């Protein structure tokens, strides 16, 4: 089912949660709503579901205006972060609940309910827990049961609100892989909320990046990571080193030091933010480079094919702040550089992406 969000606004008192959001979700995609806590992503999901109503704007499902329809009329399946399973019902009855509460004329027979619940338990690979209660399941198992319950009513779209947020890292990674596989089998239009960049990059077909109630960027995981459209997008997606300063004759001046930038997109004196991924940042000798940011080696992590070097530089001295940077280098290069903890070096970007500080618009 295709979903359209048209000029949606939503406020809670003086707080504007959604500010003129317009989006299209094609049929059959698995889309991530990604952003920091409080950015509006869960509010948007709930407005699509019909659990919240927008102050203005429209929700269109498969070309039909569903703005004034409730959650049941919209036929969406909603999976909550904390499962929301009924503790007094068995796993089987939790999944069957949505079928049993249908109006009599729409309610399946008992044999049909049993067959459907059994199929769904097989689908989520938990047929052996049918007679257990939620308290007897692990967190990962409960989340899969919550998903099976949402699928039982044959929703036209599946909405998931931080479905793995309450789980530990290992289980979360396993369930991410499982959800991606399940989606490829079912091809049901799905939208999930997350603030975990790795989760969105690994699972989604497309990412909607949201910040302060606005859509910052929409694109495939590779587009979002490799071609971020704003300073916020670059800083939020993946590990990054950040340098703030002013443009000065082809350089970014950071305090008393400078970094060379390519192109002539900027005017001298403009405030900018320059970004470099750890793998695109290099460490050079402190005495042999005119440009670069002075730093001290704080820690060296890993001795395999790739090593991570954590460095620290003085930030705002007036506030007693320090800035940390991270560089990824081949293990062979680590030996060549002969780095040691406490050593003074310089860092600079092999590939710097530079944005105007005030507007966040991309400039190179």
Your description of this structure?
- Helix 3 (91-100) packs parallel to helix 5.
- A hairpin with a 2-residue loop joins strand 4 (56-61) and strand 5 (64-65).
- It contains 10 helices and 20 strands.
- It is 26% helix and 34% strand.
- Mean pLDDT is 89; it is low at 360-364.
- The strands form 4 sheets. Strands 6-7-8-3-9-10 form a 6-stranded mixed beta sheet, with helices on both faces. A 5-stranded antiparallel beta sheet has the order 13-12-11-14-20. It has a 5-stranded antiparallel beta sheet with strand order 15-19-16-17-18.
- With 364 residues, it is α+β, with helices and mostly antiparallel strands.
Mean pLDDT: 89
What is the CA-CA span between the terminal residues? 38 Å
- In terms of structural class, how would the helical and strand content be classed? alpha+beta
Q: Which series of helices and strands comes N to C?
A: EEEHEEHEHHHEHEHEEHHEEEEEEEEHEE
How much is the radius of gyration in Å? 25 Å
Short key terms for the protein model shown above:
alpha+beta; 10 helices; 20 strands; elongated
Topology:
Layout: E1 3-12, E2 15-25, E3 30-34, H1 41-49, E4 56-61, E5 64-65, H2 71-74, E6 76-79, H3 91-100, H4 110-123, H5 139-152, E7 157-161, H6 169-186, E8 189-194, H7 197-203, E9 206-211, E10 214-219, H8 221-226, H9 231-236, E11 241-248, E12 251-254, E13 257-260, E14 271-276, E15 281-285, E16 293-301, E17 306-314, E18 322-330, H10 331-337, E19 344-349, E20 353-356
Parallel strand pairs: 3-8, 3-9, 6-7, 7-8
Antiparallel strand pairs: 1-2, 1-4, 4-5, 9-10, 11-12, 11-14, 12-13, 14-20, 15-19, 16-17, 16-19, 17-18
Helix pairs in contact: 3-4, 3-5, 4-5
